[in-house]
Amino acid sequence: MLILYGLYKQATVGPVNTSRPGMFNMREKYKWDAWKAVEGKSKEEAMGDYITKVKQLFEAAGSS
């Protein structure tokens, strides 16, 4: 689910603009890493990927 966070941040804020959290702040570090992983995407591409991923999750949940 962290991919959704990364896509959301990329679509709303843009490229990562903060330094990576320290090793003892695991939650924030994982969130930062997810955002950094999609850094090259445009706002529109990130929004489209977010919608696609949510649809995939709904479809997977419906087939369970």
Automatic annotation (TrEMBL):
<dbReference type="InterPro" id="IPR035984">
    <property type="entry name" value="Acyl-CoA-binding_sf"/>
</dbReference>
<dbReference type="GO" id="GO:0000062">
    <property type="term" value="F:fatty-acyl-CoA binding"/>
</dbReference>
<protein>
    <recommendedName>
        <fullName>ACB domain-containing protein</fullName>
    </recommendedName>
</protein>
<dbReference type="GO" id="GO:0006631">
    <property type="term" value="P:fatty acid metabolic process"/>
</dbReference>
<keyword id="KW-0446">Lipid-binding</keyword>
<dbReference type="InterPro" id="IPR014352">
    <property type="entry name" value="FERM/acyl-CoA-bd_prot_sf"/>
</dbReference>
<dbReference type="InterPro" id="IPR000582">
    <property type="entry name" value="Acyl-CoA-binding_protein"/>
</dbReference>
<comment type="similarity">
    <text>Belongs to the ACBP family.</text>
</comment>
<dbReference type="Pfam" id="PF00887">
    <property type="entry name" value="ACBP"/>
</dbReference>
<feature type="domain" description="ACB">
    <location>
        <begin position="1"/>
        <end position="63"/>
    </location>
</feature>
